[in-house]
Amino acid sequence: MRILVTGGTGYIGSHTVLTLLEAGHDVVVVDNLVNSSPEALRRVGELAGREAAFVEADITDEAALDAAFSDHSPEAVIHFAGLKAVGESVGIPLDYYHNNVAGTISLLRSMDRHAVRTIVFSSSATVYGEHNPTPYVEKMEIGAMNPYGRTKEQIEDILSDLGASDPRWRIALLRYFNPVGAHPSGRIGEDPQGIPNNLVPFIAQVAVGRREKLMVFGGDYDTPDGTCLRDYIHVVDLAEGHVAALNYLTDHEGVHRWNLGSGTGTSVLEMHAAFEKAVGSPIPYEIAPRRPGDLPAFWADPSAALADLGWSTVRTVEQMCEDHWRWQKNNPMGYAPS
Ligand code: NAD
Ligand code: UFG
After folding, report:
1. Fewer Cβ neighbours under 10 Å: the N or C end of the chain?
2. For residue 197, which of 333, 86, 308, 99 has the smallest C-alpha distance?
3. Spacing, Cα 81 to ligand 1 middle (Å)
């Protein structure tokens, strides 16, 4: 197939573009580079042995999207483009709603005009909110807790309404748990700008000497070691989940929701210990106050993705840390020339 990937130069997007190229698909990436580097796509081309096309454009720009659809004639879309920092979304909610929600509406209108009605969307486990018991199951009522999460929830609603309005739409809502790791080549990986918000990129920057120590946010939760539990998923497993969802949509209409997670919780201290093992030396840390808004523990029930897509995670926490570390060690400053 020929697939248009929004946000394809970003962290999850670049790994998915590589997986798509390796599976024999043709790819055109649309990205405005607000949080990524074109170097990622150059390296993806090197690893795959062939290039994805690239259009530098903003998804809120419908004319630019129309041109991309006309020029490249994709048959399906994988939609990663979005802003994703929870804390930032509280301070600038309009930017988040405009970029994520209005941007998605522009994309869907452009798709409809070009009769492209198959889309795989990057949702998040954050839509389950604070009232659901873990493990999370797709049929639970959702209710996000911050503007970022609400953009995901609203986009899910828009896509559900669209699917209900016209049976020609084929829609996959993928709720990611905590993506970490990197391609095993160490050539592509996560390259956060500024201070990393997420645990594993922060640990990796301490390990490589860019930060002094990890602050563990909260050591007094009601969990086995007092730190929060999350469901970490290797980014290559996640990328493969997108290909599985796309394959499913080739012979299923309608709107479908799947958790993409491993089904297992790992604590902050366990993740820190696994990363130390991958690095082979101690990584300084300190227990700090809780981070507002953090839930103590959640993980996926991934059984629907296994039943419907034949997909489940195969890579371990150890592999996540080894691969993430290889990327960070070989690229201490990410994609920026060092
Ligand atoms: P990322 O920031 O690395 O990638 C997002 C990409 O979208 C970037 O390349 C950015 O430049 C691009 N982009 C943003 N706004 C755009 C716009 N208006 N027009 C065109 N391009 C735009 O993030 P990621 O971690 O790869 O996440 C990809 C998607 O998955 C996002 O939608 C994110 O919300 C979602 N998600 C991520 C996580 C996570 O922990 N990484 C968890 C759940 C869901
Ligand atoms: N943590 C630390 N120190 C840090 C960073 C994180 O102790 O420097 C802790 C957090 O308190 C949390 C755990 O590590 O207990 C994981 O934190 P992340 O920020 O890596 O991940 P979250 O589960 O908070 O959030 C992630 C994404 C969100 C997404 C959510 C649910 O960042 O976008 O998963 O999928 F919504």
Report:
1. C
2. 86
3. 5
